[in-house]
Specification:
Blueprint lengths: L5 E6 L6 H9 L3 E6 L9 E6 L16 E4 L5 H4 L10 E2 L4 H19 L2 H9 L12 E5 L3 H12 L3 E5 L10 E3 L4 H5 L4 E4 L13 H5 L5 E5 L8 H9 L3 E6 L19 E3 L9 H16 L15
Parallel strand pairs: 1-2, 1-3, 3-4, 4-5, 6-7, 6-9, 7-8, 9-10, 10-11, 11-12
Bound molecules: NADP nicotinamide-adenine-dinucleotide phosphate and glyoxylic acid.
Length: 311
């Protein structure tokens, strides 16, 4: 076996794997790319690239596995999977395009809300010339990691009054930051709440009625992290009693969002189908290429997650 080349298994489920396979096959550090599901011999596979939960039984087919990479920023589809031994490092995609696209999406959501674009569209439908007022907004971001920190910086440059909340206290110029124990004061002074947390046991269902009650009346919610952060019934109740003014939702507990889900038709909800920021294969492949080299040279991999913390 050529020691400078490895075999890889790609398991993408909802994505067409072909673009990944074609590019990975060109790498001079890759001898073979397998695609799950397969009956091929996988005993030489050293790296597994995954999007969405793994089927049961994949890991036991990979006795030589040394590394798993998520093909997105999130790793919630992997961290809770009992078939993955703690000894196998899990990495994720950290990429400037992912951060740029996420910040642009959030900026779009904040601007659409600030400039009353929903109401303007309705007015246009009735040829109604009504000059709606707007004011500057206080925007708070939950999660100040790779995406959240990029987002607060972009929105600060756009002139919004920014704050952020994270597990450990961050220092970001021009942004009011709060540590994990300071959720209440963080929430108490917002106009828009943006969720960019990872899903962990601490953050699962964090967007619930208890949290909404700590927000001032009229706050607009943007959930771009994961559907499992949000208790959908609590959101609908908070919208119906006018405590929250509206929501832009990109992620859902069940995706695709079932046709009968009441969020589809709620007048205060705007929905996009998990497209806030989509992994760009050509730049993500550069990171994978660097990590393949590191694996071959037995160097520490880039962007390894903390299995204990869950992100
Ligand atoms: P990241 O770099 O790991 O950042 C996570 C942030 O959340 C960190 O600031 C972390 O605090 C904070 N955090 C974690 N647990 C917390 C807790 N219990 N209380 C308070 N703060 C907590 O993650 P990322 O790359 O920014 O991505 C965030 C998430 O975005 C992903 O996990 C994924 O689910 C989602 N995402 C969605 C899309 C989409 O298209 N909708 C695209 C990409 C990613 P510390 O800084 O103190 O560690
Ligand atoms: C998308 O949701 C990602 O985690 O990259």
């Amino acid at each position: 076996m050529d020691k400078q080349k490895i075999e890889i298994l790609v398991a993408t489920k909802v994505w067409d794997p072909q673009e990944w396979v074609d590019s990975l096959s060109q790498f001079d550090t890759v001898s073979k790319v397998h695609v799950w599901p397969t009956e091929e011999d996988l005993s030489k596979v050293e790296a597994l690239f995954v999007w969405k939960p793994l089927d049961q039984g994949v890991i036991e087919r990979l006795p030589n596995l040394k590394w798993i990479s998520s093909l997105g920023a999130g790793v919630d589809h992997l961290v809770g999977d009992a078939q993955i031994p703690y000894s196998i490092p899990i990495t994720r995609i950290v990429d400037p395009f992912l951060a740029r696209d996420m910040s642009n999406y959030v900026a779009m959501g904040v601007l659409m809300h600030q400039r009353n674009m929903g109401a303007n569209q309705q007015n246009q439908n009735h040829s109604s010339w009504e000059r709606l007022t707007y004011s500057n907004l206080k925007v708070g971001v939950m999660g100040l990691g790779k995406l959240g920190s990029h987002c607060v910086n972009l929105l600060r440059q756009m002139g919004f009054d920014m704050s952020g909340w994270s597990r450990t206290l961050k220092h970001i110029e021009g942004v009011k930051t709060y540590a994990q124990t300071e959720l209440k004061p963080f929430l108490s002074e917002l106009d828009v709440l943006v969720n960019l947390l990872p899903v962990t046991p601490d953050t699962e269902s964090i967007l619930n009625s208890n949290l909404f009650e700590q927000l001032p009346q009229g706050v607009y919610l943007i959930n771009v992290a994961r559907g499992n952060h949000l208790v959908e019934e609590d959101l609908i109740a908070a919208l119906n009693n006018n405590h929250l003014s509206g929501a832009l939702l990109d992620v859902f507990r069940q995706e695709p969002l079932p046709k009968e889900n009441p969020l589809w038709t709620h007048p205060k909800v705007t929905i996009t189908p998990h497209v806030a920021s989509v992994t760009n294969p050509s730049s993500a492949l550069e990171l994978l290429k660097a990590n393949i080299k590191r694996l071959i040279h037995e160097e520490e991999l880039l962007h390894v997650i903390d299995r204990e913390a869950g992100y």
